Amino acid sequence: MTGAETKDGTVAITLPPGDPACREALARVGEALGDLSRAVSLTAGRAPSATVRLPEPELPARAMGFESIEGLPEINEAIQDLIDGVTSEILTAQPDGPRPIAVLDEALTAVRDRIAAGVSMRTLYQHSTRFDEPTKEYVRAVTSYGAQVRTLAEFFDRMIIVDRRAALIPANAARTSAVLITLPAVVHFLADIFERAWDRAESYPFLPVRAADAAPEVIPAIRGSIRRLLIEGRSDKEIARRLGLSLRSLQAHVARLKEEHGAEHRLQLGYLMGLRSGAAAGREEAPDRP
Questions:
Q1: Full-prediction pTM beyond 0.85?
Q2: Which of 234, 225, 89, 257 lies closest to 152, judged by CA?
Q3: Residue 23 to residues 15, 224, 240, Cα–Cα distance (Å)
Q4: d(Cα 63, Cα 182) in Å, to the nearest integer?
Q5: Does residue 231 contact residue 277 with C-beta atoms inside 8 Å?
Q6: Average pLDDT estimate for 192-196
Q7: Alpha-carbon torsion 185, 191, 193, 195, what sign?
Q8: What domain of life does the UniProt record list for this protein's source (predicted)?
Q9: Helix 211-231 crosses helix 266-285 at what angle (to 10 degrees)?
Q10: Within the chain, how many helices (H) and strands (E) appear?
């Protein structure tokens, strides 16, 4: 899902084509906004004059809606504020593959304290983290405390949702700016996307622990995502980032795919895979003949 501000100050939201789950969730956002519009219209109709004055609400520490946060120190401070105020649940999405050991160690202490206080926690990683030893050790530790961790081949951008009341998402590709969202309808929308991704995800395995043994479970899903992104014409750098792979690992997967399809170069590989994908789709849609 992408969004852009138009000249008149409104926000246009673009959904992935053919994604009924996202459209269903957005429809509920639209219904909530429609209810608000009708309530305002009804109040205006009952007012003695054209001007409707509503009592000033008491604002929380952060105004409800959207707040732009610039700079990594400020983003980390906002995250800490959210974690300090959590009472029941933390949902996090951590794409881009393995995370630095120092980051994992710091997160481990915070997670332990929150779970000990009765907070539930669920985290989504990408399949590529199953081959990273520090991440495996971190997951082993947090799950022993009571957290839940699952993985997907591909996932949307980084996100944290606290108590279904606030969400923090990146505002640029470098993640040096972020948006704090406290508008209930939008937080609900993001939580719904998380839940649907969670349902599709696989539990993080601990046995077998060797990467070579874990590979058969996740490599087909990773290769499937690589095929789709190659057919779409994505660059190696973009595919690697979206799947949480190093560029070298991605190029090794692409080399295997070229060998499998008999392609001499990357462009031919995308073309051949596109032909095969189109033919398979045609066979599935063709009616049975007597």
A1: no
A2: 225
A3: 7, 24, 28
A4: 8
A5: yes
A6: 92
A7: negative
A8: Bacteria
A9: 80
A10: 9, 10
